[in-house]
């Protein structure tokens, strides 16, 4: 059973309620769900959000969109993933994040297929990024998730779900033919949202299922769009978590 778990919450620190922000009359989360549903290899799609009252809005969107919603820990996202996967008897988990409204189902399926065809515990297109930031896909076994859940201690491992797996299991990667990792298609800042909105305004009415290549063609035609959010670095949230790891380790040493 291949289960895609889309993690989403309202209380984003950098851009609060970003998943609820409207793009052409539908929320960012609804657009992302529409796109994930076009995957041919996902058996079940589950949105994993928190028990915090602010995330009632996410559960309501899931209800409206006929998508399963599971609610768990707000900050221990690894725990949230584990209990979601366990509840639905997942053998294979596809990890997606709610800040990627330009996600491409063909890229998702490419990573899943590579995992299925090979003997890896974990496969992604993010180990040595070659895809635009915002097309991230991670696929891993339930066994590796369970081990991470029971063994991972660092804040970064609990918040970002897969660091322990990548450090302790057999991993594989999917690479794009051309390195496009400098492109930023994720939404963490207001400028990111402005960029994504402009993409939707130009492509959605022509084809609601526009893909990776359609966006590249658009950016070739309007290269100035790349400047809208180009000042931000990739994985700033993860870098912040690594700083928190140092505080955690220092406290452990101090109290030993």
Structural topology:
Blueprint: E1 2-7, E2 22-23, E3 26-27, H1 28-36, E4 44-50, H2 56-64, E5 68-72, H3 77-87, E6 92-97, H4 105-117, E7 122-124, E8 138-141, H5 142-151, H6 155-159, H7 163-168, E9 171-173, H8 190-203, H9 212-221, H10 236-255
Parallel strand pairs: 1-4, 1-6, 4-5, 7-9
Antiparallel strand pairs: 2-3, 6-8, 7-8
Helix pairs in contact: 3-5
Mean pLDDT: 92
Major sheet strand order: 5-4-1-6-8-7-9
Order of helices and strands: EEEHEHEHEHEEHHHEHHH
User: Spans of 5+ residues with little confidence (pLDDT < 50)?
Assistant: none
Largest sheet: 7 strands, mixed
Overall outline: globular
| CATH fold group | Spore Coat Polysaccharide Biosynthesis Protein SpsA, Chain A
The CATH class label is Alpha Beta
The value of Rg in angstroms is 18 Å
CATH superfamily caption: Spore Coat Polysaccharide Biosynthesis Protein SpsA, Chain A
Number of discrete helical segments: 10
- Number of domain modules: 1
Strand content: 5-15%
- Secondary structure category: alpha/beta
What does this entry look like structurally?
The mean pLDDT is 92. The chain has helices at residues 28-36, 56-64, 77-87, 105-117, 142-151, 155-159, 163-168, 190-203, 212-221, 236-255; strands at 2-7, 22-23, 26-27, 44-50, 68-72, 92-97, 122-124, 138-141, 171-173. The protein is of the alpha/beta class and 256 residues long. Helices cover 42% and strands 15% of the residues. It has one domain: Alpha-Beta Complex (Spore Coat Polysaccharide Biosynthesis Protein SpsA, Chain A), CATH 3.90.550. The chain has a seven-stranded mixed sheet. It contains ten helices and nine strands.
């Amino acid at each position: 059973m291949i289960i895609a778990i889309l993690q989403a919450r309202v209380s984003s620190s950098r851009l609060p309620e970003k998943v609820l922000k409207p793009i052409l009359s539908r929320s960012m989360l609804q657009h992302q769900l529409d796109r994930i549903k076009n995957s041919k290899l996902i058996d079940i799609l589950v949105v994993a959000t928190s028990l915090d009252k602010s995330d009632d809005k996410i559960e309501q969107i899931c209800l409206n969109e006929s998508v399963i919603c599971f609610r768990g820990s707000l900050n221990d996202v690894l725990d949230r993933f584990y209990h979601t996967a366990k509840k639905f008897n997942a053998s294979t988990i596809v990890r997606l994040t709610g800040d990627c409204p330009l996600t491409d189902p063909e890229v998702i399926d490419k990573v899943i297929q590579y995992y299925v065809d090979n003997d890896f515990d974990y496969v992604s297109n993010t180990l040595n990024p070659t895809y635009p930031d915002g097309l991230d896909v991670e696929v891993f076994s339930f066994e590796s998730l369970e081990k991470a859940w029971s063994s991972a201690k660092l804040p970064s491992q609990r918040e970002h779900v897969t660091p322990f797996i990548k450090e302790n299991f057999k991993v594989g990667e999917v690479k794009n033919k051309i390195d496009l990792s400098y492109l930023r298609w994720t939404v963490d800042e207001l400028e990111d949202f402005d960029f994504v909105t402009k993409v939707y305004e130009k492509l959605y009415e022509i084809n609601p299922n526009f893909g990776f290549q359609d966006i590249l063609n658009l950016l070739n035609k309007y290269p100035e769009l790349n400047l809208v959010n180009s000042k931000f670095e990739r994985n700033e949230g993860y870098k912040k978590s690594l700083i928190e790891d140092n505080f955690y380790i220092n406290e452990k040493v101090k109290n030993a």
